[in-house]
Design the sequence.
């Protein structure tokens, strides 16, 4: 397990490019199983989760190869009953292949995706939607078998605007007989980009980005070349990096329209954000010191994936803040780690109450999940002294070379691979060993 070592207190400056979106690359990779034709994807970030999804596709018989700036997939034959269970347990987003395999050939056997550190992550809404489309679902011995003679279009109401359920059902319905209407659908930009990709393959989807999505099933889908949208959560994370270090930086490859709630909160806290005529967004965080009241909500509300990063920022606000997490039941694990760095945060139920402090103190802390890890890196950028963020593998799932990008902006941060660490400890041990 690598760790990141950060010496805080440095101002950031310069510019950095945001990568393609992880949370649309994964469903779009899964959706490539819907067609026998070649699919070429650009701007997909080379993250560990993307690597695992490519492995899932390969084990299902697809030809997958990376060119210089693209990932190419050709799933002209599908083998096996479903994604390999060891990969599903590593990466729950593998469950997004269920909708694609159902749409492609009417059956899939898939191990139940476990929960994760932030919550139970049930799949009841996915299964309810598949059944509405005419599929049978049977659970046994940790697997679920989903079969359908022929998927038939139906009107489906989602009890909660689940992103994954909306994606899975769009994929399955794209090849169903007749028309499907998904009501109370998720409205995230990633849903829109997935719909655009499916339509480029020949699907007939309208309404993506609203609460009502209409999918007219088609018999066959073709190939396409598609560039994924920028990662709005990575962009938001770098915006907070500028805010917490009271710096000014320029971000390239950002669609501000995808970040309205985040931009509104940053401005409310005192930041300035301006789109530049020559491109890019200038983020001025010098005066981003005001406390906030934040509630996470489905898009277009404040994104749960930015909650931890804002908590790091608000530990240093001039006043008291409240953050309420309404999406996941256990997404405050970064609180104890931030308090070890000198923050003053109290959790009651789904709300965290922060009293701003003058200074954080560098400390060895552990990342428990992707966004919590990012929050600890942000806190380390502002803390006095040295912060070590352990278990960086969580962060690498969602951020491509975050240490290099932050170093490019002037942060004093470097990665220590634990192999180096053990060699260093070995050397120290032998040097201090008492001569016989
Ligand atoms: C996607 O997860 C994202 N992951 C998450 O990003 C993100 O936090 C989440 O959407 C919400 O925006 C990917 O896109 C790969 P949901 P997903 O289904 O689809 C409940 C990150 O940090 N629910 O919208 O799993 C569920 O328990 C990750 O990048 C059911 O009850 O999220 C949760 O409370 C973390 N039954 C809520 O809905 C279901 O069948 C939101 O889940 C499905 C979900």
Sequence:
């Amino acid at each position: 397990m690598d760790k990141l070592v950060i010496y805080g207190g440095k101002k950031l400056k310069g510019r950095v490019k945001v990568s393609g979106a992880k949370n649309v690359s994964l469903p779009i990779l899964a959706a490539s199983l819907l067609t026998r034709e070649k699919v070429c994807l650009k701007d997909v970030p080379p993250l560990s989760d993307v690597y695992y999804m490519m492995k899932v596709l390969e084990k299902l018989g697809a030809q997958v190869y990376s060119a210089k700036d693209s990932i190419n997939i050709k799933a002209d034959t599908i083998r096996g009953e479903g994604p390999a269970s060891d990969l599903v347990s590593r990466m729950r987003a593998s469950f997004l292949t269920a909708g694609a395999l159902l749409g492609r050939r009417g059956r899939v056997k898939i191990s139940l995706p476990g929960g994760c550190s932030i919550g139970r992550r049930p799949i009841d809404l996915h299964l309810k939607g598949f059944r509405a489309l005419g599929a049978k679902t049977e659970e046994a011995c940790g697997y679920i078998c989903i079969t359908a003679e022929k998927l038939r279009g139906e009107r489906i109401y989602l009890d909660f605007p689940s992103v994954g359920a909306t994606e899975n059902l769009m994929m399955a319905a794209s090849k169903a007989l007749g028309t499907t209407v998904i009501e109370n659908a998720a409205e995230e930009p990633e849903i829109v980009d997935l719909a655009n990709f499916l339509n480029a393959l020949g699907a007939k989807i309208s309404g993506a980005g609203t609460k009502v999505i209409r999918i007219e099933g088609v018999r066959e889908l073709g190939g396409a070349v598609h560039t994924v949208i920028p990662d709005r959560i990575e962009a938001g994370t770098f915006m907070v990096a500028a805010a917490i270090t009271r710096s000014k930086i320029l971000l390239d490859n950002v669609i501000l329209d995808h970040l309205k709630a985040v931009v509104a909160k940053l401005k409310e806290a005192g930041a300035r954000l301006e789109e530049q005529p020559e491109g890019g967004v200038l983020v001025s965080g010098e005066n981003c010191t005001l406390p906030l009241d934040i509630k996470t909500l489905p898009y277009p509300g404040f994104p749960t994936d930015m909650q931890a990063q804002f908590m790091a920022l608000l530990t240093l606000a001039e006043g008291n803040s409240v953050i309420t997490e309404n999406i996941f039941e256990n997404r405050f694990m970064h609180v104890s780690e931030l308090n070890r760095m000198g923050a003053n945060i109290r959790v009651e139920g789904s709300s965290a109450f922060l009293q701003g402090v003058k200074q954080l103190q560098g400390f060895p802390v552990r990342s428990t999940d992707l966004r919590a890890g990012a929050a600890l890196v942000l806190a380390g950028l502002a803390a006095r002294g040295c912060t070590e963020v352990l278990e960086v593998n969580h962060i690498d799932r969602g951020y491509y070379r975050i240490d290099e990008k932050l170093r490019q902006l002037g942060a004093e941060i470097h990665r220590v691979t634990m192999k180096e660490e053990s060699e260093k400890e070995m050397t120290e041990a032998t040097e201090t060993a008492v001569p016989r």
Notes: Residues 3-19+230-423 form a domain with the UDP-n-acetylglucosamine1-carboxyvinyl-transferase; Chain fold (CATH 3.65.10.10). Residues 270 and 435 are 60 Å apart (CA to CA). The chain is about 35% helix and 25% strand. The longest strand covers residues 3-7.
